[in-house]
Task: inverse folding
């Protein structure tokens, strides 16, 4: 579907303040919690930190919440019936390409070493471009993750 502005109504530039959260469906909640919490080092929200609207789902093990360094919430929703990704990782996601995390240049090689030590398959890279350096790999459900730094 192509959207055209038929009415002329728009949200004024600057009215959207920030990304509030990113929600991902995951097949294996424990593997995903380990990946985002232990390997990527994101802080998992627990106890009083859990948003009030998600307390029951978190308590039931159906949702886990992490906070990114810039304050964006990453919600993992357990979907045990989620179909596995296409065996060709290039075809796994058709609408979301990747989730990128920025890292200080001095810490980039250390992050690559952590990925390798955890035997996570690197899809691309490390690559160096005019926009910076990046390494691409997959989370447990096949979503491509990038860790990148400025040049």
Result:
């Amino acid at each position: 579907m192509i959207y055209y502005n038929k009415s002329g109504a728009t949200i004024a530039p600057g009215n959207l303040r920030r990304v509030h959260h990113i929600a991902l469906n995951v097949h294996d909640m424990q593997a995903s919690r380990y990946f985002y919490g232990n390997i990527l080092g994101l802080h998992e929200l627990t106890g009083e930190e859990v948003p009030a609207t998600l307390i029951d789902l978190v308590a039931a093990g159906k949702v886990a919440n992490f906070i990114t360094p810039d304050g964006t919430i990453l919600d993992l929703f357990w979907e045990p019936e989620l179909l596995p990704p296409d065996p060709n990782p290039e075809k796994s996601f058709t609408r979301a390409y990747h989730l990128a995390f920025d890292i200080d240049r001095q810490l980039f090689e250390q992050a690559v070493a952590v990925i390798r030590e955890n035997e996570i398959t690197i899809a691309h890279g490390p690559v160096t471009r005019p926009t910076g350096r990046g390494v691409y790999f997959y989370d447990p459900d096949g979503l491509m993750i990038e860790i990148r730094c400025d040049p």
About this structure: DSSP finds three helices and eight strands in the chain. The mean pLDDT is 85.
